[in-house]
């Protein structure tokens, strides 16, 4: 007799949901700043909006905060439509790149400012501020003024001031942009630690791919007002959905050609000049269309002769760049394609070619990914089986 299982409960209500959100400005722009964005962000999730300047990520964040109103669509906080609700009536707080701390107040008084405005009892303020300063590891700096703190410490004060009010979500607009590289990297880990400890939903806007990959549970990659892909960092990096995502997240090689054969889930892409690569293809596709395939530089091996199965291309090294932990090789193949290859510098046994050397490039079929995004459509789309 099969074991009976209790019926699954209803799906949890997202902490924040965006439904067909559009934002247009009456400034003669040819296209809306945000175009039909749909997102569902879970409670306690660290969610990043990633993209280049002008892609709509900050506008999206400002609409969630209530500083901008959408032209169309809904913005929901725990199932309640927030469109038309003033920013001060939404149970969210926002942290900006500029910390906006009060220079004449102590660290503790800066953190307590919002609680005092809400007339929270003094003893509760003292306890909440003390606990929050411990969370951000600044309890020993409670009596100092902001000017006596480093940039990273000031940023943690700004976080504590926002979090002490216990918002249901914290919105962060490139808060680490003013910090130097080393401090920014250490603050990324601090932010993730703080978010785990407080358990509040974080929505983080950044144009820095490494930042998003380091901290996020999920990432929404935006381009030209649209969401190109949403997923965990590993999925977005390893399996980009479009040429834009492949190029924006780290470094990627994009190869264009015609799909000449499909068998048992593997396709053959003809690059021209007798060069082919293999790629896993979804069911329901048949050969004959133009396609784009991406492969990450660290997945490619350099050898003096063709080895193994999968994709194998012959080319000439045109550039060698030492990057510290790795070396970057640029290789031009016979068809004119240029590929970047990363090789760790701790591998002393690996081939170390110089400019002008002839090499073979190889990688398994599993490391080639077919791009299906609409941002850079193929000229002759792959034809589905009917």
TrEMBL record:
Q: Which organism is it from?
A: Streptantibioticus cattleyicolor (strain ATCC 35852 / DSM 46488 / JCM 4925 / NBRC 14057 / NRRL 8057)
* SUPFAM superfamilies named among the record's database cross-references: MOP-like, P-loop containing nucleoside triphosphate hydrolases
Its function, per the record, reads:
Part of the ABC transporter complex PotABCD involved in spermidine/putrescine import. Responsible for energy coupling to the transport system.
Query: What name appears for this protein in its UniProt entry?
Result: Spermidine/putrescine import ATP-binding protein PotA
- Alphabetical keyword list: ATP-binding, Cell membrane, Membrane, Nucleotide-binding, Plasmid, Translocase, Transport
> Which reaction(s) are listed as its catalytic activity?
ATP + H2O + polyamine-[polyamine-binding protein]Side 1 = ADP + phosphate + polyamineSide 2 + [polyamine-binding protein]Side 1
Q: GO molecular-function annotation terms?
A: ABC-type putrescine transporter activity; ATP binding; ATP hydrolysis activity
Q: Could you describe the subunit structure of this protein?
A: The complex is composed of two ATP-binding proteins (PotA), two transmembrane proteins (PotB and PotC) and a solute-binding protein (PotD).
Q: What class of enzyme is it?
A: translocase
Quote the cellular component terms of the Gene Ontology held in the record.
ATP-binding cassette (ABC) transporter complex
Tell me its family.
Belongs to the ABC transporter superfamily. Spermidine/putrescine importer (TC 3.A.1.11.1) family.
EC numbers for this chain: 7.6.2.11
Q: Which gene encodes it?
A: potA
NCBIfam families xrefs: potA (TIGR01187)
List residues of the ABC transporter domain.
16-249
Extract the InterPro entries matched here.
AAA+_ATPase, ABC_SmlMolc_Importer, ABC_transporter-like_ATP-bd, ABC_transporter-like_CS, Mo/tungstate-bd_C_term_dom, NA-bd_OB-fold, P-loop_NTPase, PotA-like
């Amino acid at each position: 007799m099969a074991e009976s299982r209790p019926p699954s409960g209803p799906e949890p209500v997202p902490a924040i949901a965006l439904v067909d959100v559009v934002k247009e400005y009456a400034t003669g722009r040819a296209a809306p700043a945000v175009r039909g964005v749909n997102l569902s962000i879970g409670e306690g999730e660290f969610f990043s909006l990633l993209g280049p300047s002008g892609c709509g990520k900050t506008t999206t964040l400002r609409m969630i905060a209530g500083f901008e109103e959408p032209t169309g669509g809904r913005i929901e906080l725990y199932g309640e439509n927030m469109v038309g609700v003033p920013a001060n009536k939404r149970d969210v707080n926002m942290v900006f790149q500029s910390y906006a701390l009060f220079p004449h107040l102590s660290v503790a008084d800066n953190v307590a400012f919002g609680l005092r405005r809400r007339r929270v009892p003094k003893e509760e303020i003292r306890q909440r501020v003390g606990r929050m300063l411990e969370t951000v590891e600044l309890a020993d700096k409670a009596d100092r003024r902001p000017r006596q703190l480093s940039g990273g410490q000031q940023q943690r004060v700004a976080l504590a001031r926002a979090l002490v009010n216990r918002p249901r979500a914290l919105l962060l607009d490139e808060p680490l942009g003013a910090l130097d590289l080393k401090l920014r990297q250490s603050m990324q880990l601090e932010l993730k630690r703080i978010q785990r400890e407080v358990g509040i939903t974080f929505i983080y806007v950044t144009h820095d791919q490494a930042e998003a990959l380091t901290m996020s549970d999920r990432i929404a990659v935006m381009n030209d007002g649209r969401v190109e892909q949403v997923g965990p960092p590993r999925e977005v990096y390893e399996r980009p959905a479009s040429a834009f995502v492949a190029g924006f997240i780290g470094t990627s090689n994009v190869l264009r050609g015609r799909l000449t054969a499909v068998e048992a889930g593997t396709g053959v892409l003809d690059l021209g000049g007798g060069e082919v690569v293999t790629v896993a293809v979804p069911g329901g596709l048949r050969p004959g269309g133009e396609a784009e395939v991406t492969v990450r530089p660290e997945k490619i091996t350099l050898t003096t002769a063709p080895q193994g199965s999968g994709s194998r291309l012959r080319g000439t090294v045109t550039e060698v760049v030492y990057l510290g932990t790795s070396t970057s090789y640029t290789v031009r193949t016979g068809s004119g394609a240029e590929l970047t290859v990363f090789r760790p510098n701790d591998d002393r046994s690996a081939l170390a070619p110089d400019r002008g050397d002839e090499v073979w490039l190889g990688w398994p079929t599993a490391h080639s990914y077919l791009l299906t995004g609409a941002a850079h459509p193929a000229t002759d789309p792959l034809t589905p089986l009917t």
